[in-house]
Amino acid sequence: MTITRLAIIGLGLLGGSIGLAVREHAGAIATAGYDRDPRVREKARERGLVGTVCDNPADAVRDADLVVLCVPVGAMEEAAREIAGALSPHAIVSDVGSSKQSVAEALERALPGVCIIPAHPVAGTEQSGPEAGFASLFTNRWCILTPPDDAEEEAVAALSGFWTSLGARVEIMEAAHHDLVLAVTSHIPHLIAFTIVGTASDLEDVTRSEVIKYSAGGFRDFTRIAASDPVMWRDVFLSNRPAVLEMLGRFTEDLTALQRAIRSGDGEALHDLFSRTRAIRRAVIEEGQDDERPDFGREDHG
Amino acid sequence: MTITRLAIIGLGLLGGSIGLAVREHAGAIATAGYDRDPRVREKARERGLVGTVCDNPADAVRDADLVVLCVPVGAMEEAAREIAGALSPHAIVSDVGSSKQSVAEALERALPGVCIIPAHPVAGTEQSGPEAGFASLFTNRWCILTPPDDAEEEAVAALSGFWTSLGARVEIMEAAHHDLVLAVTSHIPHLIAFTIVGTASDLEDVTRSEVIKYSAGGFRDFTRIAASDPVMWRDVFLSNRPAVLEMLGRFTEDLTALQRAIRSGDGEALHDLFSRTRAIRRAVIEEGQDDERPDFGREDHG
C-alpha cells in the first residue's frame, strides 16, 4: 500500500514540520490538517503547513490513508475519539508522542479495530507552535515505530516508507523498550534541565540577574531544553512514569556517588568519569547526531 | 598604568584565545607565552598564539606588566612558584580559573608581596588545547575580577581595561560570592552533565549504541558539556568544594520534589515549573548570552 492522502491532527512544531517536509520531499502526497486552536489554523494557512486546513477534525481525516496525531500525549485519546467516526476503513493511525506504551493503550481504547502503529520521530527544538516547524527537522534523525504484535506488515512498511521519504531513518522496537531508552536519552535530560533552571531561579543568595549574566559557563545550555513546551513535557512525565522514575533513581545514585567523591577529595574517581564521558560525545558526532563544531556552532560571539 | 607586555602561562583554549584576542584587538601589547608541554609550545608557534613562545616560564614573564596564568586551578600554585623569581617588581599576576577563593590563596602562598588580582572570564567551549582557541571567545562575555581588599585601584583598573579591550564586559565581586554564583551557573551544570552521560553509558538494559542513536531527544546537549577537559573540571570540583556541595544539595532537593510530583501524578506542579523556566531562557537571550536561533543554530539537519 502507498500513502497518497495524509491527515495531520495538531499543527505545532511536529505537525507543521511533517506538513512542510511532505511538501518538500514527498510532494505527491495530498495533505490536510486540523488544530483545535483557531489561531493555529490561521497561521497554518498563512504558512501553508498543509494543503488544506480544515475547521474540524473529521473533515481532515476523511479519505486519508495515514492520520498522524501530533498533539501532547495526554491529549491523544480525545483527539482519537474526535476522528473515530470519520476514518476510512483502510486508514493507518499513527502519532509522534514521546512515550509509546501509554499512547498505544489510549489509541486502542479510542479506536477499536483500527490499524494503529505508534511512532516517535526523535527530533525537535525548544520552540513550539505553528511558526516553529521546518521541512528539514527529520533529516538524518531516527523515527522509532512501535507496532503492536498483530500489526499488518504492509501497514508497517508503508509508515516506515513514509518516514524514510521525509529524510528520517527508521527503527522498530517494542513500546516498553522505547519508553526505557527515551527515558534516558530525552526525558531525564529534560527533567534535570527543568530542575536546575528552577533551582537557579529560586536562590536567595545569588540573584536571578547574576544567573543570567554568567550563564555562558554552562547553565545556558540547560535553559534551551528548559524552554520546551510545558504541556507536552508535563504529559511525557506523567505518561512514562515507571521508566522515568527508574532512570531517575539510577541518575541520583550516580550523582550521590560523585557527591561523595567531591566531599572526600577523590580526584581520581572524578577524572575517570570525566574521561569516559568525552568518548560518548565523539560517538554522538560520528553517528551524525550532533554538530561537530565547538559550542554547537553558536554564533553569539560577536 | 598601561599594559604593554603580557605573559601567558598555559597555551590551551583560554591562554591561546587571550593571545589571539590581543593580536586582533590590542595589537600594541607585546605577548610572550609558555606551556610546560613541548608539543603545545610547538603548536603555539605554528598558530602564532603569542608573539614569542618561550621554553621556560621565567623567560616568558621577565619584563611583563601582566602575567595571566591559564592552567587548571590545581596547577596554579606550582605555575606561580615557577615564575616567582623572574617577575618584574611592578607586575600584576592574574589567572582565568573557574574557582577564585582557592586560587587566591594558592597565589598568595606562592607569590608573597606580589600584586595578585584573580579573574575569571566566563567563556569557553568543550574543546581544549592549543588548537581550540579563537580571538572572539571573550566578545560580549563577562569577565569577573575578584581583587583582594587591599588591591591597588590602579592595578584593578588596568586589568579591567585589558579585558574590556578584548571585547569582554567586566564585573568585580568578592571571591566567595563568585564561587557561589559559578557553582550554580557552571559547576553544577557540568557535574550533572558528566553524571547523566555516565549513567547512560553504564546501563545494562539500554545499549550504548541506542543512547547515541536517539541522543537528539535532549541527551546530546549534555554530551557537549561532558566532553570538557577532565583535568580542568576535576580541579574545579575539588577547589570549589563547599559551594558545589551546597548548590548540589539544593538541586537534589528540588529534583526530589519533582520526582514526588511525577510519582503522585501532580501535573500542575510540573506545568508550573516548566512554565517558569521558559522565562529564564528568554532572559538569557535578551542579555546577549546565547544564540536565539532554535537548537543553538545547529546545522546538522542536512
Please characterize this protein's 3D structure.
Two copies of one chain form a homodimer. By secondary structure, chain A is of the alpha/beta class. Chain A folds into two domains: 169 residues, NAD(P)-binding Rossmann-like Domain (Rossmann fold); 89 residues, 6-phosphogluconate dehydrogenase C-terminal fold. Chain A is built from twelve helices and nine strands. Chain A has a six-stranded parallel beta sheet with strand order 3-2-1-4-5-6, sandwiched between helices. Chain A has a three-stranded mixed beta sheet with strand order 7-8-9, covered by helices on one side. In chain A, strand 2, helix 2 and strand 3 form a beta-alpha-beta unit. In chain A, helix 4 packs parallel to helix 5. Chains A and B meet through helix 7, helix 8, helix 9, helix 10 and helix 11 of A and helix 7, helix 8, helix 9, helix 10 and helix 11 of B.
